[in-house]
């Protein structure tokens, strides 16, 4: 068989013009007769190639199915040619009958020799065998080739006009698979034809196939509706116009040709519509059978997944937790590769179900085991500087780690010993470091998804680690966790620590913490609106948002006035002076939801100077957080699991550690910054002439 190369193109062209070895009117003879007489057209092309043109052209290096080989000089190596071209045609057809219809259509496009053989009348039996083997598709409609029919049925669920995916429905009357958008654009309703095409004869609609399902019907048909494809209208109108022109020119026989054309087209339309009805019945049955097959494949996949989890020691009542998961609704068989991919996805769900079941049935034993883990965790905390407790994961999160989860929620027939918990706690630094790295990676990924580092789809892992950590420590890196707003990654860690502490009024169950351990990225999302507000406040202070951290703003402790509140209220009313943290919360809770991002980026704040801010701070009085029992000494572990108020801890530091002027975050600290009470904003005069006037006015207010 010749290769479609520039040098051998003469041989391929001979194939099209060569006579077929089998009578085209008797397709059954393709499988019978003398093998010597029933040779393929490749042999004829090879024999007639010597009389073709001898133009020398550079040979391409591509070959088809290895039928010929080309050496480095571009000369065909005849000794290496395969035996396939020399086979009898019936054997070749027997081999081709093993292919699917789409494979046959693709093979027909490889070169002219294959195209001549596969599209010949003798090959019709091959197509029938292929269609019956794959979905049992009906015969192709009139004037449609087998290749075109195969591409329509098997060519993929996408629109043939624009390429839109997931277009499954085929309109057999117009022989197209089109999306709703293209149908609305291309369909022409019969009732609007005369108005839309005033120059066309309405009679041409009788010569075109039509469908009763329009673009606005959502797949529902109406027997009285007729929709025509626009391209078909123009194509038939061109032929119809030429025949009419012949009639107007009084060309002999023009009227007879017009009448013959109309009769043939009317018969063709009748045949196409009848064939479309048969195809639609087949399609409905096919979809029903396909749905049944899919359900059986899904059930087989789910049973196989359950079997594998049973072998790992899980119970059926826990395995049922994955029944509604997407991975349980797929049709692909569970191979080792698939199992290695889906096991990390499904196993946490089963683990959560197991832990919930254990908590309901083993309450006392579970409390004892958790107490042993708490003792091991407290021993680890005593080895740290107390202020480091702020950013440690909560004890409930420690229960969710795999090593402690296996100790707490499994093997109840064996009592848990403190030594086992202490041994597992040796790796706590490793687990906590991994926890922080995972959280930082999730925060960076959330920022990258919002376009902070450039393109919206830029991966956070492409950002240098040092640069990413610096970005997370900035005050302008704002994240949201449900209804709470975290300023910087340190605040996110502190929020998780408080969320799982006994001080938190709303206690999350085991499901929450195991799910959080397995998928930290669900905990936080980047808040671009909050970041815009913080950047605007920093800019009002004359600082650089790319360098300012939360500690810097806390140390300045300036007060701000919301300019948007001033515009909304009466001019003579007094403004409220906010700290930078309460100001961000005020802005996001009251105004952020209806303001565009470009407005949030503008300067909507007025920063009070240091003297005015100092006067406001004095007017605010004692810090309300001092009365919270969330304070601890930073020089000893006496307040571990026994937090006190600020005055109590202050007195302890002065007496026990002999410090006359203890400093916050140096000698004592608030363990839960995310739950710290902030001073309420005070009313502030609009105009102040001096710091002394500010103090007098504030004293009058309070």
Ordered list of secondary-structure elements with their pairings:
Layout: H1 9-17, H2 41-48, H3 89-96, H4 101-107, H5 112-118, H6 124-133, H7 146-154, H8 180-186, E1 187-189, H9 193-196, E2 227-229, H10 230-248, H11 254-311, H12 316-319, H13 336-361, H14 363-381, H15 395-400, H16 402-408, H17 418-425, H18 428-449, H19 465-472, E3 478-481, E4 484-487, H20 489-499, H21 510-518, E5 525-526, H22 528-540, H23 550-556, E6 559-562, H24 563-568, E7 575-579, H25 580-590, H26 597-600, E8 605-607, H27 610-620, E9 631-633, H28 646-656, E10 668-670, E11 682-684, H29 691-701
Antiparallel strand pairs: 1-2, 3-4, 3-5, 6-7, 6-8, 7-11, 9-10
Summarize the structure.
This protein is mainly alpha-helical and 702 residues long.
Describe this protein's structure:
Helices cover 48% and strands 5% of the residues. It has 29 helices and eleven strands. The strands form four sheets. Strands 8-6-7-11 form a four-stranded antiparallel beta sheet. Helix 10 packs antiparallel against helix 11 and helix 22 (528-540) crosses helix 25 (580-590). It is elongated. The termini are far apart.
What is the structural class? mainly alpha
**How much of the residues is beta strand, in percent?**
5-15%
Name the overall outline: elongated
Number of strands: 11
Query: Distance between the terminal alpha carbons, to the nearest Å?
Result: 101 Å
Largest sheet: 4 strands, antiparallel
Mean pLDDT: 80
What integer value in Å does the Rg equal?
40 Å
Helix content: 40-55%
